[in-house]
Structures are given as C-alpha cells and as structure tokens.
Design a protein that fits this description.
- This protein has about 180 residues and is of the alpha/beta class.
- The termini are far apart.
- The strands form two sheets. The chain has a three-stranded parallel sheet with strand order 3-4-5. It has a two-stranded parallel ribbon with strand order 1-2.
- About 40% of the residues lie in helices and about 15% in strands.
- The protein has two domains: about 100 residues, NAD(P)-binding Rossmann-like Domain (Rossmann fold), CATH 3.40.50.720; about 70 residues, no CATH class.
- The protein is elongated.
- The chain contains six helices and five strands.
- The longest helix has 17 residues.
- Helix 3 packs parallel to helix 4 and helix 5 runs antiparallel to helix 6.
Length: about 180
C-alpha cells in the first residue's frame, strides 16, 4: 500500500478492500470504501473538487465507463489511467483519459534503453530513441506529446542513422 504524501496535495483513495480502507484511515489518509464506477463513490471521494483522477489498477474492469462517468461529474479533472497492454490505450483515450500508461509499453522502453546503454549511446541518442519508441508504442501515428507526460520533440532520425559504435538505430545489438 503506497500512497503519495506531499504537503500541498490532498489524496483521497477509493478502495474495495475494507481492511485497506481502515489501515489508510488509521494512517491519516482519506479513503472511501466503494466501487469507483458508482457516482456516489466518486462524489464521496471529492471528484467535484479534484484536480486529478488516477486509475492505478491495471486491467480494471469498467475503466472506460469510469472515465466517462468522471468526465460527466467533473469535466475539468485530469484523468491518468494505467493499462497492462498497449491494445487498451485507444479505448481509454477515447473514453476521455488525458494520459494512459501501459506496463507493456514501459517494459519495451526499458529494454530499448538497456540496449542503447550497451551500445554506448549519447544522452541525445537516448532522448531521440526514447521519443521514437514512445511515438511508435503509445502514439496514434503522431509523436507523443505533453498529454502523455512527454515533451514534444523533433522528428526521429532515419532508421539507418548510426549510433555511437556504428550500429544503425534500427539495427541489431552486437554480440
């Protein structure tokens, strides 16, 4: 059970596990027992005054319904959602999520960074490839942008642009 504590941030957690709700409350953390897909639960958690709504459970059944409901109750709330698979991103975005993060995509990104590190890539090459991979994995044909927590960047280099050590960006790792 990890909860962010920041002096200017008020966190309210919706939880279906009553024991977890009790532990959170004992720790001084605002917690609401209930199903987040019910309007009454979202209202009890303060959706009307919330700046952000974070859906942190990957593979949450009814996530798209919850996002649409939250948009109805609080049109200005920023919604950040988590998904296990890249295939779920379009549906969550279409439902109204501002940013969607995929475990599958983040693992692919980490693997890319590990390979680049082994090849001796420069910080600029890391940034360029990170943006290219994010656009390929998370984008809809457009480069990733601020709505995905990624600053806008220039177009990626051609596939045959060499990395330090002479291997093309799209090439295989040397053995």
């Amino acid at each position: 059970m990890a909860t962010l504590k920041v002096s200017l941030l008020v966190v309210s957690r919706i939880e279906l596990n009553l024991d977890t709700v009790r532990r959170l409350r004992e720790a001084g953390i605002s917690a609401v027992y209930g199903d987040a897909s019910h309007p009454e639960t979202l209202k009890a958690a303060g959706i009307g005054a919330a700046g952000n709504l974070i859906l942190s459970a990957a593979g949450m059944e009814g996530a798209e319904h919850l996002i649409r409901l939250a948009r109805e109750l609080a049109p200005e709330v920023r919604i950040l959602a988590r998904s296990s698979y890249l295939r779920d991103l379009p549906g969550l975005r279409e439902a109204g999520a501002d940013s969607v993060f995929s475990g599958e995509g983040e693992v692919a990104l980490a693997l890319t960074e590990a390979i680049l590190g082994r090849l001796g890539a420069t910080p600029e090459q890391f940034d360029r490839e990170r943006e290219r991979v994010r656009a390929d994995l998370f984008g809809t044909g457009l480069p990733a942008g601020p709505e995905d927590g990624v600053p806008a960047s220039p177009a990626p280099p051609p596939e045959d642009a060499p990395l330090e050590g002479g291997t093309p960006a799209g090439g295989a790792e040397p053995r």
